[in-house]
Automatic annotation (TrEMBL):
Record-given protein name: ATP-dependent DNA ligase
Keywords: Ligase
CDD domains: MtLigD_Pol_like (cd04863)
Gene3D superfamilies assigned to the protein according to its UniProt record, in alphabetical order: DNA primase, PRIM domain (3.90.920.10)
Organism from which the protein derives: Streptomyces sulfonofaciens
Amino acid sequence: MTPITEVEGRRIALSNLEKVLYPRSGFTKGEALHYYATVSGPLLAQLRNRPVSFLRFPDGPEGQRFFTKNLPPGTPEWVRTAEVPHTDGPTRQVLVQDLATLMWAANLVPEFHTPQWRADAPGTADRLVVDLDPGAPATVVECCEVALWLRDRMERDGLEAFAKTSGSKGLHLLVPLEPVASKRVTAYTRVLAVEAGRALPGLATHLMKRSLRPGKVFVDFSQNAAAKTTATPYTLRAAAEPTVSAPLTWDEVAGCRDPAELVVTAAQLPARLDALGDLLAPLLDPGRARPLP
């Protein structure tokens, strides 16, 4: 029998809580739900007012995965949604605005992905993202070197960058912006990616062709496009272990010498929050936003 729980006055069916999602560690669906409840404060702050796309993996990372932006079947009527423009016509997407919605969504076993704009201003970005993706044999160690160069380069333009793990192989850099068209952010970030490739020719590239990327860090600027999304801070990832897209200090980035140093799991994240606080809270502070050059 599927257990029913009440969250903030909403009745939610939570299914298959003992199901093992991550076989290597024995991490269960119930533990995933507990993780999301534990980090709900900073996670909800990052999700709020951003249409959510779901990468679902209900049978674990080694099972079927499917990415959806549309409302999942059986979405409760009390879940808030937003109309989102797409090339083939507007659709409705979920807004995860409260703990009840978060727990309902977490029961679907998703990664949470969000755009760089809010639902009330589609295509107008309030943050910039750079995805640093290492091509083997490069690792997150090389990503850190590129991240430090990009941080310093953006600082010269008056922008303040914050780092987080992708939860997979690389790093994400996030920058709070005064609202600006996504197209302008994409153009600016592409210039940065090209500059990084010139400044670090053996280490970084802006070219997407995979045959040109072995041993280099791909500086992916494309996720600033209005139609693109990025793994939301604090989301679980569909990886071999229950890794998290976790905020980092710049000291951690500068000091990284081994990829294992920047692997953060669901079990570790709550202690990091207790010790470091929400390192990405400045992204939500309008006073930290700066104009795009």
